[in-house]
User: What shape does this take?
Amino acid sequence: MGDIHQLIEYFEDYDFYDNVLSAEVRDKEAKDILLEKCDFANVSSRLNKWKLENIVHILKSRVSPGQKSKLKAVVEEYVGHKISIEELFGQLAFRSSHFLQEVKRDVNAIEQNSRFFVFYPVILNRKKGTQQPLFTFSCECMEEALQIQKAFVNRNVLTLMLSQKMDMDLSDVKTSYGKKIDEMASAVDALHPSSLISEMYQIICGEFRHVFREDLAEYRLSGEWQLLEKAIISFQSSEAVIENCFRDEMETMKRFISQDDILPETVKQYTGLADYRPQNIDEVPFDGSYLGSYQDKYPLNQKQWKLVQLANQSKILCVEGPPGTGKTTLLKEIIADTMVRKADVLLSVWDQPWTDMGKEGKDISRSPLGGENLYSIIISSTNKKPIDNIGIEMLRELPFFSEYAGTIHVTAGGENADHDRGEQKEEKKGTLEETGKRAGSKIYKELDSEPDKASDSRPDKEPKRESDREFHKEHQEEKAEYSGIFCARLGQAKRIEDFYLLVFQPFLAYLEGKEITAEEEKAAKDSYVELRAKMEHINHSISGFLSLRDTYRDESTALSPGALDERQKALVKESEQLAIENEMYQRNSRDIQEQQEDNESQKKRLNDALLVEENENSIAKEQLRKLYSDLEEYESVTGIKKLFGFLFPRVREIRAVYGSAHQIRDMIEEEKGRCSSREARMNQLRQDVSQAEESRARLSAEAEKVQKQLAFNCSMVEQNQKEREKLKEFLGYITELEQAVQVPVAQWMDLEAYEIYTLKEVYKLRNRLFLAALSLFECYIFLHKKPILNNLKLLFTKKDGDDGNSFYNWCSILYNGDAPYAAKRADLVRTLWETFFMCFPVVTTTLHSFRKSVFAMVPDLFDMMLVDESGQIVPYYVLAPLYRMRRAVFVGDVNQIEPIKNVPAGLLKTKYTQRLGEEQYKRFCLDDASVQSYAGRASDFCETVGSRRGGVILNEHRRCEPAIMAFSNELVYEHVLEIIGEDNHNKLFGSNLVAFDIRGLKAAQHYNRAEIQACKEIIRLFVEKYGEEVKQDIGIITPFSKQASMLQKEIQDVESGTVHVFQGAEKKYILFSCVVDDAEKTPGLYNFIGGKCNLLNVAFSRAKEQFIFVGNLQAAECSGNYLKEAVRIIRRDGKIFSFFDTECFTRGDFLADETVMRVLSGKQTCFGSDQIGKYLNQKIPHNIIDTSQLHNEILNEILSMASSSIHIISPWIGRNVVTDDMLTTIRTKTEDGVKIHIIFGYKAKECSLADIDDLVRRDVSWNREAAAQAIRGLLEILGEDLEYLPPSHVKLLLADDRYLFIGSLNWLFNSGKTAQKEISCLVTNLDTIQYVKKKFLS
Assistant: This one.
């Protein structure tokens, strides 16, 4: 567990800095002290007194009544080290021994404390009574001396002081001086410890002079803020002195991990300590679908469809959600699917009883679900707006206990209109934001006192209302009828109080009196079971259809309905043909078998006959051999044997048989003849047998061939049968689906899997199933209301204090102090929360309110956390909540608003590189990290785009028209977005992407009046075209809060604000006011706007139908960053309108558009009563000069009429314009005191008026001699007021600092005798004239 402990220590340290660099003095018992009195004797005396008071306070309520009289004296002995802690507790009698060890631990901690904080100087908010230090000194009281361990500068107080010194808005100070503030914070942090606070303070003042080049003593505060010349000393722990909600949670979690040795898998994976391998989404097979849909109006896109399924398989799932890609839709769909799965489980245990856990189990009842609190969902973020939005939407949209919800009347923010909030106001903390600055627009109409961060004392926070009543004075109260209580909107104390009083407690009363009939129960169950069966059936049909379709696709089979019908007919015909062939082969087989049998029979007869012949032949041969023997023997009887043959038996025997040798010979011949015949017969038989063998072999071969043909035919029959069955099944699926989805098969046959799963009737069925699940929950709760009511009353309780205040407690009967929960106790906590989530299936709360006082620090306490806008969240904010979760889904975008951090980058690098190692520190470094970046590395499923691998990207954008989203898609998201929809340029100004080149001066306080005037005129034009109600569809975004506040004041009923205000919002029309006027002089401001893509990405992506850029286009293009790219894309895909852009004037079409001219011209002053004004009113009533001849005429007239000054910028000078008469007029005017100032020059930068001939040769292409003559004539008269300053592309004429002509004409070169069309516009707007004078004429 060592790695997690070191990592948590890094997070805690970072959080301490983050808060101490922006904190207020939270210790209400902190005492004032003079800085020079912060010596050892004074501080140690105060410390002992503090110890005495706090220990007495702890023990006073626990000792027996008779002990209170001696309590102080005994504690004094203990604090004075005269007795030990054991003796202290031994001398006192206590009412109860319950938690006595914890009390002893607390007392010991106070006595052992030697640390304290000194705050100096301190600023007081007179209105709110809060105090905030500029510097915080962390000190320790050693045995004989004080030691300053560390000093910190409060960035927010420093920002406030700079704001008042520079007369700038707070957020604009951060933009302009952010690096210097970081430098100051780092410099103070690096100071070596000291023993004298006054001495260290002087060192800090020296650092301040070094960084800001000014003395700190010169800084003063005014208004509601007062700089106090005093110090404050606090002996409380850092947790009590400085806001620490996340640090306290992490400290508890770290202690529990150490004691229990339990580190939940979610925490392991999030922090990179788990051994897992993320799977690329492209490698994941999606062969099914999910069960519940939140709505039935439109289907999910493919990525959303996949992600809903992945949410059920993930421990951690990171979703990258670019603007307008359906993040909220995805979250709602995950919720709906989870609820159906919960209903399935609930139905499976419907009739099982609840278990009474008895006294040992605090009389808690456990449901048959087992008390695991599965399927519980918490939605959280640091930004309360998105979770409020989704929470309110669920309450309004989902009919869950709608009968009860109909009795609740709430305002738009969830409070009862009749509830007296004044008596129950939450304690408000100080804020450094300007008094009275409020977001009075629809985007903030949700009534909520919960801040975006737990410490709302920071100057960058929006101020909170003194009360909701005050807010209602400014904004008409809206009533919102809720459809149900599906979501419990928890959070800060006031939100919890409202939930208890307005929702929870009345719900208990409602449930007490509600009964349900058996018929109602049966109807709810039957409805759900029927819809669930339909869903199962249709999912099975789709799965089967897709599986079979894939096999047909692999076989390259045509899949049109007609082709499948033809295929079915072909298979039937083929089956019939195979049957005929099969019969033929079987018949052939039988014939061959009969022939084989005949052949075998014949062969047997032949073999038998041959055997007989062979046997007879053997006998005959033996007989023949005997005859030859007998003949030989007969012929051997001669002599005495022949005479006395009777005397020899053998002779007698032979003579008896044979009459003579001749007879024997005859017999031999006769036998030989028979043998010969027999041999012939035998040979014939052998031949016949051989032929029979040949016939057998032939028949066997034929039989084998026929059997193969028959086997092949049988396999073809089997294959045909299988294919017919498969096709029948396929067609059956098609028929079922066609009936279910009510769409002709031809329209969905070739669709992708997700498109079929998201056909209208399918997602409508999922929605019906989700709603049926809610009805099922209601029914179950009614049936088991007794144990449910019992558990709810044990879980959430109200306690009234002696002072009239109420306290709301969660799981108080299971309170465990600071000790980890034992397994059985933790199970009981889960059991109580499981009951709560039955009645309120979803909870919303900010991460700042995710505290152990409400959500006990129990592993796996909840099932799923959905974290929205996670790109805006500091990574460790979710660590302790993850400890309580089984799984989490993070949705956000690192390319939109980044987390707010007060710690200068690299401040903790050296310390934690040594502790964690360089590789680990680099991985977990918080400087540029967010929850989204952490989750992207930890996600079970990932996606690769280019060289980037991270969370799964939602890539279907439906909010903006393509041209508007081009900036984000090309420059931010690497063309990954698929923009749904088409450009519609039938709008005001003729395009959905427009830029107005408004050249006004930026004030030091970061506002631009010319741009404000242009925005006002654009709004007027919108109202003229669309009506007053269009204002609700318009938003004005600016990078600077001073500009935002002035826009709010100048333009009523149109929402204006910085980009942070619009994060998560959308409008039909967005105006972007850039403010800055000079990229070279203010590179830091342009880097703030366009150095990263985030700000412009949010600005562009808020506009659904039209984006209008209002600002200095030249300065934007000179920035060299994303601002330049923004203008490039507007030039390419939209329209640019500018008086200062030659290309625009050569196009010239916009000058005929009165609406464009009204915006560009700014607030025109009326023609004066002077001579020039009267002349121009008569000559150009519409402020446009549209011919070269008229230009020349007006030039000569104005030269003669000007009373104070004439400024001309003309790239070229020609004798055809600068005639002798004009030179005479110019001379006369200058002699009369009229300043005439001419700037010219085209491109020859290396030339000068010292050598006019060379200048003309290099810079003039025709009539050079005449041009040189004109230049010499002007130089003689004007001297230094004739300036050669190439390159000069602007062409203008300014008379008497009141009448500015700007356009395409070269005033001193084009005499009006050519047919070339030239256009100029008269501008009398003073802001534009001042800009021109400063930028081009000074």
